[in-house]
Amino acid sequence: MGWQVGDLTLNIILPVGISFYTFQSLSYTIDIYRQATRADDQCRRLPRVRSFFPQLVAGPIERAADLLPQFGVDRKFDATIAADGLRQMLWGLFKKLAWPIGLATIVEPAFANPGNYSGPFLLLATICFAFQIYCDFSAIPTSRWASANSSAFA
């Protein structure tokens, strides 16, 4: 198109999650325009919905109509739910760190030089790699947490 792109243009640093933030804001605006949802009458809830960090990082883009009511509910602390959440966080951390690192001692050498290893060992390394990936990405809440979370702060 004949535009000159300078170093300053290429070195613009954008915040992490800016596309999710933008699309989530557009989704809210479009929903209001289409009258799929009402505009939020409490100014403090909408910024919390738009900047809800786990949603911004993990996606998918959530409709404001789904999240806004959750931010308007009065919360009460429940020690058993909090203890269960901490237990699950520790288990997720263990799954994220201990298992993948331990399995990497088998997987990495086998995948780096597969010619140096036998077929059965490479099969074991492949199975270990699948388990390594599973542990790395499965550190999320269980269905027990999901069912308890719906009434945890009611």
Question: Describe it for me?
Answer:
With 154 residues, the chain is mainly alpha-helical. It has two domains: 7-71; 79-152. The chain is 67% helix and 0% strand. It is built from eight helices and no strands. Helix 6 runs antiparallel to helix 7 (119-137) and helix 6 runs antiparallel to helix 8 (143-152). It is flat. 7% of the residues are buried.
Helix content: 55-70%
Number of domains: 2
Q: List the uncertain runs.
A: 141-154
Distance between the termini: 57 Å
Rg (C-alpha, Å): 23 Å
Strand fraction band? under 5%
| Net shape | flat
Largest sheet: none
Q: How many helices does DSSP assign?
A: 8
Structural class: mainly alpha
Order of helices and strands: HHHHHHHH
Q: How many beta-strand elements? A: 0
Mean pLDDT: 76
Brief overview:
The chain has helices at 7-10, 18-33, 45-50, 53-58, 64-71, 79-112, 119-137, 143-152. The protein has 154 residues and is mainly alpha-helical.
List key phrases describing it.
disordered C terminus, 154 residues, single chain, 2 domains, mainly alpha, flat
Could you outline the blueprint of secondary structure elements for this entry?
Layout: H1 7-10, H2 18-33, H3 45-50, H4 53-58, H5 64-71, H6 79-112, H7 119-137, H8 143-152
Helix pairs in contact: 6-7, 6-8
